Amino acid sequence: MRLIRTSLAAIASGRAASGRAASGRAGTTDTHADGSVVTIGNFDGVHLGHAHMLEAVTREAKRLDLPAIVVTFEPLPHEYFSGDAAPERLQGLRDRLASLEAAGVDQVLLLSFDAELAALGANAFISDILVDTLQVRHLVIGDDFRFGFRREGDYALLQAAGLEHGFPLTACNTFDDGQGRVSSTRIRRHLQASELAQAGALLGRPYRISGRVVHGEKVGRQLGFPTANIRLGRHRPPLRGVFAVKVLDSDTAQRHDGVANLGERPTIGGRRLLLEVNVLDAAPALYGHHLAVDFLHFIRGEQRFESLDALQTQIAADAAMARELLRHE
Q1: Is residue 132 domain-resident?
Q2: Owning domain of residue 237
Q3: β-strand pairing of 207-214 with 107-112
Q4: Total structural domains in the chain?
């Protein structure tokens, strides 16, 4: 999958912004002379509802022998407008891109959501991005899709533009699992309640957080439970506590059972959100490796202990519980 990371200013000036492909090669904002099949959205979580829409995109792209392209944004629009009050993301950017690649997308156009893009009118978005840049030949959207300055763009506007510019429009109906609309908001609520099975059912896979292992304070090692500290960056996932997890080491392709703590470590005066993973019954060298952590079972909420001895005893109990929960996974 090719990633093109750019801004409206770069597109408007005809300059190629820096980007990278999934393989690490440089990308450009080149036009698509033969056309493309496009969808647009946040795609936070890339859940079953998203998969339904992406399947329509890739199917049409295959039929027309054109690239399947996702237009998405960084930061997400609601993060730009709401700042720290915005809902927590389901995925960091790397995980979002990995999920889109797994869905069969050929290219992602990642637009910087800034003041200029926020002020762009719906008609200008159609002409500048969809028509001039991507040469859209078929557009797939969700049935509730809105876009452009003050969300002025809707299905009717896109339908009229399609007639003018010659691209058909497919609106995918809301994906309902029998209990309601599958959405990032609904998944977020399940994760906040530590309902991992329910969240996983809507995602179509276990909830996952990925990141690079970095050096920490070595507190876990002092307690006899060395942990891999995974860098979260700006990503603040919508769950907290201690969990039984499966760990994939992307550098070695090895899989491990583990117990993970996602929180601020109140017993040792922590203030920064960390994901710490103790690999059970193994001591692999993980520094610098990229790990994908699948959250399978909730064990307990994060709590403050009166002493490191009490914390050590609880960690041993957590590890034993994780082994039991993961025995048949």
Answers
A1: yes
A2: 207-326
A3: unpaired
A4: 2
Cα–Cα distance between 329 and 320 in angstroms, integer? 15
Q: What would the two tokens of residue 200 be?
A: 């996983």
Question: Is residue 146 over pLDDT 50?
Answer: yes
CB 325 within 8 A of CB 297: yes
CA pair distance 212, 8, nearest whole angstrom: 30
What tokens appear for 196 in the block?
A: 């991992």
Distance CA 24, CA 195 (A): 36
Q: Looking at the predicted structure, is the pLDDT value of residue 18 above 50? A: no
**172, 191, 224 — which closes off a domain?**
172
255 and 320 both lie in a single domain: yes
What whole-number distance in Å separates Cα of residue 256 and Cα of residue 136? 44
| 189-225 b/e (C-beta count within 10 Å ≥ 16 → b) | ebbeebebebbbbbbeebbbbbbbbeebeebbeebeb
Question: Model confidence over 187-212: pLDDT tens digits?
Answer: 999 999 999 999 999 999 999 999 99
| SS3 assignment, position 8 | helix
Question: How far out from the chain centre does Cα 115 lie?
Answer: 23
| One-letter amino acid of 207 | Y
* Main-chain dihedrals φ then ψ at residue 29, nearest 5 degrees: -95, 50
CATH (domain of 212) = 2.40.30.30
Beta bridge partners of 111: 6, 73
